[in-house]
Amino acid sequence: MNLTSKKVTVNKSGEELCLFLSDVKNFEQLMPENISKFEVIRDNAFVFALKGMPEIALEVKETNPPNEVVLGAISDKLPFTLTANVEPIDETTSKTELLFEGDFNSMMAMMIKSPISKFLETLTTNMEKL
Question: Which top-level group of life is the source organism from (predicted)?
Fold first, then answer.
């Protein structure tokens, strides 16, 4: 299952945005209001939960400043990656979109498609406000 967020403009250079997204503590300010848990568990990993959803643990898998940050699920139960594709515009601005790629059976994909789409939309909307 592949989902892509809208592309948004962020008031950070590509390098700054990649550094921001590489620091897992910063994801707390991007999370939706209905977050019920956010905890940094390692320098490169955090766990979060939204009301009514199971906890999800993510870790930074790869960073390629100024163009990309890849986060991946720590658990094999829900194997997916969340990639921030960053397109530098100038020294103070960049565009970004999030790409969610997961390997789920069709029943699971049907159940999580809407919540994940809303989650991606919230993350990008909050990035736009940075």
Answer: Bacteria
